[in-house]
Specification:
The protein has a 5-stranded mixed beta sheet with strand order 2-8-7-6-5, with helices on both faces. The protein has a 3-stranded antiparallel beta sheet with strand order 9-12-11. It starts with 24 loop residues before the first helix and ends with a strand. Helix content is 40%, strand content 13%. It is globular, with a radius of gyration of 21 Å. Helix 3 packs parallel to helix 11, helix 4 packs parallel to helix 5 and helix 14 crosses helix 16. It has 2 domains: 196 residues, Alpha-Beta Complex (Aspartate Aminotransferase, domain 1); 252 residues, Aspartate Aminotransferase, domain 2 (3-Layer(aba) Sandwich), CATH 3.40.640. Strand 3, helix 5 and strand 4 form a beta-alpha-beta unit. The protein is built from 16 helices and 14 strands. With 460 residues, the protein is an alpha/beta fold.
């Protein structure tokens, strides 16, 4: 047997376990009904395998737990801030750091500092909190991702790429002065965890330099993106994930970051920039929204754990196991004929609910219904990424109708075993076999913002 075909195992061993509550189908039916068929409203104790999100749900290492004991809880000038700052400089290369309580705190700062009323903010597919902060600051998000990203069956390996022709047309239409920056997500969550190529980033940098437009990363899952570049882009096979991460950042002007994903912590994030003027304004504003510029709403111990997690996140062995587990689950589902987004992305498997439940219209919230059904079957909690997440047009009040109607099976880092992946696959396969019995939903409560978190439904 060749080395390339041999089995691999996680580059860690388990020191502690969390015991889980095992529920019956009747208990799960009651739980999901009480939760208004919204998996966000389930109680965690009623969940067996939790794939709701990879945000803040990772298992920290012994080094990170040790780091918690080194917390300098000074209000100003905590040594842990300077350790985090050093990690950001070393692994990402950005000049200035403003810590925040999590990624959306950084999104708010960036939007408040750079966006004026009437501005246009292009991006490679929307993300829920990012777009809302841009809109609240007076901007309008415009999607400039390549068309392949909207086709769940397309096998192009870099479906997160920016369509440079779309962006050029947007610049001609509105003018560069109306575009404060382009937001580039690496990887693209709503497209199924799809990566951006280095070639595309280089070309984007050349284009934006001509027009004086900044590039701001949503670099929450940058190490995962780097792994895909290493595996699939010419000239990068022998480069480390760490080196590729730093090169990605070198083509940009700054970034928002949720440490709750790649950096393997339960809370924390930051805004990082190279421009001194932007840094000074954001440093002033962070005091209003988050905390002093040397803690940004975080305890010292949280900053220490994030600094350590950044270093661990760019290790090749870690990333091979992380992406390998996601690919393992994807392969199991494909073997069972489950329609999923291809290629398999970085942080989870995305089931194509339109193809899974063709008898339901998008107005019947097929992804929301499917997520509820999977939980009822096995206690596996997933989440909707479709019409509910897309929200409404702020001017017309009508639903946005995204081309992709997905159920996301998000894999926490270093938490579950391959046996858990087998249980998940078997549950989805069982639901698929009985898919014709699944009924749609109607929304009976809708909050004003980010409705997918708190909306409630009932069966049709």
């Amino acid at each position: 047997m060749s080395l390339s075909k041999r089995s691999w195992a996680e580059p860690f061993k388990i020191k502690m376990v969390e015991l889980l509550k095992m529920t019956t189908p009747a208990q799960r039916q009651k739980a999901i009904k009480d939760a208004g068929y919204n998996t966000f409203l389930l109680k965690s104790e009623d969940v067996y395998i939790d794939l709701l999100t990879d945000s803040g749900t990772s298992a920290m290492s012994d080094q990170q737990w040790s780091g918690l004991m080194l917390g300098d809880e000074a209000y100003a000038g905590s040594k842990n801030f300077y350790n985090l700052e050093k990690a950001v400089h070393k692994y990402y290369g950005f000049k200035h750091l403003i810590p925040t309580h999590q990624g959306r705190g950084a999104e708010n700062l960036l939007s408040q500092v750079l966006i004026k009323k009437g501005d246009i903010v292009p991006g490679n597919m929307y993300f829920t909190t990012t777009r809302l902060h841009q809109e609240l600051a007076g901007g309008t998000f415009v999607d400039v991702i390549i068309d392949e990203a909207h086709d769940s069956e397309n096998l192009f390996p870099f479906k997160g790429n920016i369509d440079l022709d779309k962006l050029t047309a947007l610049i001609k239409k509105h003018g560069a002065k109306k575009i404060p920056y382009i937001c580039v997500a690496v990887t693209v969550n709503m497209a199924g965890g799809q990566p951006v190529s280095m070639e595309n980033l280089k070309a984007l940098r050349q284009l934006t330099n001509k027009h004086g437009i900044k590039i701001m990363l949503d670099m929450t899952r940058i190490a995962e993106n780097a792994f895909f570049i290493q595996q699939h882009e010419k000239g990068y096979a022998k480069k480390s994930v760490a080196a590729i991460v730093k090169e990605i950042c070198s083509y940009t002007d700054g970034a928002t970051f949720s440490g709750k994903k790649d950096a393997l912590v339960n809370i924390g994030g930051f805004l990082a920039v190279n421009d001194q003027a932007i840094f000074e304004e954001a440093s002033n504003l962070v005091v209003v929204y988050e905390g002093l510029h040397t803690y940004g709403g975080l305890a010292g111990r949280d900053m220490e754990a994030m600094a350590i997690g950044i270093a661990e996140s760019v290790q090749d062995e870690h990333m091979k196991a992380r992406i390998g587990q996601v690919q393992y689950l994807g392969d199991k589902l494909l073997e069972a004929g489950i329609p999923i987004v291809l290629p398999v992305g970085g942080h989870g498997i995305f089931i194509d609910a339109k193809r899974f439940l063709p008898h339901l219209t998008q107005d019947q919230f097929p992804a929301q219904a499917l997520a509820a059904e999977i939980y009822t079957d096995s206690g596996v909690r997933t989440m909707e990424r479709g019409i509910v997440s897309a929200g409404r047009n702020k001017k017309t009040g009508n639903h946005y109708y995204p081309k992709l109607e997905l159920v996301r099976l998000t894999i926490p880092r270093r938490v579950y075993t391959q046996a858990h992946m087998d249980v998940i696959a078997e549950s989805v396969e069982h639901v698929f076999e009985n898919r014709k019995k699944i009924k749609g939903l109607k929304m009976i409560y809708e909050p004003k913002y980010l409705r997918f978190f708190q909306a409630r439904f009932q069966k049709l």
